[in-house]
Design a protein that fits this description.
D-Maltodextrin-Binding Protein, domain 2; alpha/beta; 2 domains; 445 residues
Length: 445
């Protein structure tokens, strides 16, 4: 799931004024470990002796609402253990989790992580390896969408988080503007070059922009054509991949978009971005399937019926976003099995996964939900198109992308170099070579 918009300022993480969690000292952890006794029995319902009365979950919107909605089911399993959800805005949340993992203070029992941060934490040693006892998440491997679980798998084979929702990539298009420009769906999806050419035609006839920002086409293009053993920016041996043909083509496509003035030069989640949707000056958006829900619910509800979802151009399939639940190694020891119970409930319970899908557009990572009639229902916002079935099909083709602890940093470097290409005319090959040199210095840290 991608983060929702950033509302008015929310104070950043400043313990203990914002966080209600008590500090986890070595003494308290040692005492908890000494008193830990495990009751027999697999899966849900496993408890520690003298269980806590509160289990704390750190999350961001709309994951916080999903966890809160699961409270009744949780209370049936553990009537004496309340759920406390600590919610922060997307960036503040991940900053807080980074700080907590590095200091072992103010750690929640369960933390939600967006897929872009899983790699950063996966190789840092701060998260429990769910592939090992007492978790043994691999026994549930067939129940998760295959690529999702692999996104949380480190190079050593450790699985540091459980997937709860995913983001199959899609192309959302304004049907009314395409019709006015005389552009067909086939022109939009035949190839990436055809997509850009269609944007030129649309701009000439209607004046509307193809994309919010040229980097949007880069973001999807670098996620397509990834080979087995490769990550987004690094391979399994931490060799840098950003000078590869995949990145060259992505940068060239973005440059063509900017050269032909096809992007509005606005950033996602900005006021200008949402206004462009409402006014019809933005024709397409490459994103995860979750964006259709955001458009319908708050971004541009007045445009209902004017959108359609297509598969990505050139037969591409890519993951775009996703949420995971993890347990910190430094979290209270006596709470860890309860935390694992909660993670199983949130990620493996069909009813709860479907409820999150229906209420928050959290596309489920649980395969057993995929036969539900909800996938076949028409989406009024998309003109009655049963787009969920198309997105479900996309999940069957998406390949896992290996995560790396420097992925987030690499993304920043690539965006910086792309800006230099777009805004200052820097040569693509030089830009990518410069990025590769910088990332090579950080790859194995």
């Amino acid at each position: 799931m991608h983060p929702p918009p950033v509302p008015p300022f929310v104070p950043p993480f400043v313990p203990p004024l914002v966080s209600p969690l008590a500090p986890i000292t070595r003494r308290r952890a040692t005492q908890a470990l000494a008193g830990l006794a495990l009751a027999p029995g697999p899966g849900l319902g496993v408890r520690a002796a003298n269980p806590p009365t509160v289990l704390t979950v750190a999350a961001f919107p709309a994951v916080d609402k999903i966890v809160e909605a699961a409270a009744p089911a949780w209370n049936k399993l553990h009537p004496g253990v309340a759920l406390k959800v600590v919610s922060r805005q997307f960036a503040d949340h991940h900053t807080a989790m980074t700080t907590a993992l590095s200091t072992s203070f103010y750690l929640p029992d369960v933390m939600a992580l967006e897929v872009g941060y899983v790699g950063r934490f996966a190789q840092g040693g701060g998260l429990e390896n769910l592939a090992q006892p007492p978790y043994d998440i691999r026994r549930f491997e067939q129940q998760y969408v295959p690529y999702a679980l692999r996104q949380a798998t480190g190079r050593s084979g450790a699985i540091v988080a459980a997937p709860t929702d995913i983001g199959p990539g899609t192309l959302l298009v304004r049907t009314d503007i395409l019709a006015k420009a005389g552009v067909s769906d086939a022109e939009m999806t035949r190839s990436w070059e055809s997509y850009v050419a269609a944007g030129v035609k649309i701009k000439q006839v209607t004046g509307a922009y193809l994309l919010a920002h040229a980097r949007d086409i880069k973001d999807i293009a670098i996620r397509t054509g990834i080979q087995p053993g490769e990550g987004l920016y690094f391979d399994k041996d931490s060799q840098v991949l950003v000078a590869s043909p995949r990145f060259v083509r992505a940068f060239e496509l973005a440059r063509q978009v900017r050269k032909n003035k096809l992007d509005a030069k606005v950033s996602a989640w900005s006021n200008e971005w949402s206004e462009a949707f409402k006014r019809g000056t933005l024709v397409t958006q490459l994103s995860g399937a979750w964006l259709a829900g955001h458009l319908s619910n708050w971004l541009a509800p007045s445009t209902k019926g004017k959108w359609r979802a297509l598969q990505l151009p050139e037969g591409s399939f890519a993951a775009y976003g996703g949420t995971f639940f993890a347990i910190a190694r430094g979290a209270p020891v006596a709470n860890k099995l309860l935390a694992w119970d909660l993670i199983q409930l949130l990620t493996l319970n069909r009813e709860l996964q479907l409820a999150a899908f229906k209420s928050q557009d959290a596309f489920p990572a649980l395969v057993s939900t995929y036969d539900d009639p909800f996938f076949e229902q028409p989406l009024p916002f998309l003109g009655g198109q049963p787009a969920r079935a198309m997105w479900r099909e996309a999940t069957r083709h998406i390949q896992a992308v290996a995560v790396h602890k420097q992925d987030a940093f690499a993304g920043e470097v690539i965006d910086t170099e792309l800006d230099k290409v777009l805004d200052h005319g820097k040569d693509v090959a030089v830009a990518l070579a410069d990025a590769a040199r910088l990332l090579a210095k950080r790859a194995k840290r």
